[in-house]
Amino acid sequence: MARRSGYDADEVAGQLCVPAAAFRWAWHTGVVPAPDASSWQWSPEAVEAMDAEAVKAAMPREAISAEAAADRVAAALDLRDRGGDKGAVTAFVVRRLIERRLLTDLAVASAAELLNPDQVDAVCARPDLARLVAEESPLTPAQASDRIGVRRTDFDHMVRLGWVHPVEWRAVRFGAGRGVADLPLFRTADIDALPATHPEIDWTALRSVERDRRSPLAALAA
Questions:
Q1: Paired strand residues for 114
Q2: What are 64's strand-pairing partners?
Q3: For a disulfide at 59, which of 14, 22, 43, 91, Cβ 3.0-4.6 Å?
Q4: Digit-coded pLDDT (tens) for 47-59
Q5: Ramachandran bin of 17, using left for φ above 0, alpha for ψ from -120 to 50, beta for the remaining angles
Q6: CB contact at 8 A, 93 and 73
Q7: Which UniProt key words apply to this protein (predicted)?
Q8: Helix, strand, coil distribution of the chain in percent, nearest 5
Q9: H or E segment at 91?
């Protein structure tokens, strides 16, 4: 039988008898070399030269889910502010921290993040943790429009114009037998930045438009 020319990350983890997440962390931190057989595969020689114990030592604790990471972040904030709402920190926030490269997703499937608990704890120890969580917290369209003091119809035009974009969609069930709808979610920081990024708009006037009046933004072309 011909010898294999390369192994992907999960196959290498199997060869080394280490958790796949631990191997990906070792790869991320340089404990193991970059793939040499292709952009995503290691040669048999490279695998044979790897130190399984070094891989295990790089991440000694089991990987945790985004939800578990969110609980740790909430607990860290609660220790600093006993009046905090633990439920305010969700996996949405964790995924945004991954996008900011403050956390590393070690999972293969994008729908089920896995994280190094030591890295999560390091983020939890940051003095700016509360600010990070506030910036990355999710807002529904209704919450977003309320936050900047405009009507929902005005906010919908901002989305149409491409001024702000949802970063996730969440399935929401409406009553018994009414089905499921996808609800867009926005970053709080993106919503807060709208007035500053669009100074050409008279925000005072926009916030004063009566409920049944046509939006001043309706005439703007996307």
A1: 65
A2: 115
A3: 22
A4: 999 999 999 999 9
A5: left
A6: yes
A7: Plasmid
A8: 50, 10, 40
A9: helix 91-99
Q: How far apart are CA 189 and CA 144, in angstroms?
A: 10
Distance, CA of 98 to CA of 115 (rounded, Å):
9
- Adjacent-strand bridge partners of 171: 182
Q: How far apart are CA 204 and CA 169, in angstroms?
A: 30
DSSP state of 93: H
The dihedral built from the CA positions of residue 173, 177, 181 and 183, taken in this order, carries a sign that is negative
pTM: 0.88
* CB atoms near residue 73 (< 10 Å): 25
Per-domain residue ranges of the chain: 9-58, 64-136, 138-219
Amino acid present at 171: A
Which residue's entry shows tokens 């009566």? Answer: 210
Question: In this predicted model, which residue has the larger pLDDT, 222 or 136?
Answer: 136
Beta-bridge partner residues of 170: 183
Query: Which tens digits make up the pLDDT trace of 145-190?
Result: 999 999 999 999 999 999 999 999 998 876 666 678 889 999 999 9
Please tell me the total number of residues recorded for the chain in this structure.
Answer: 222
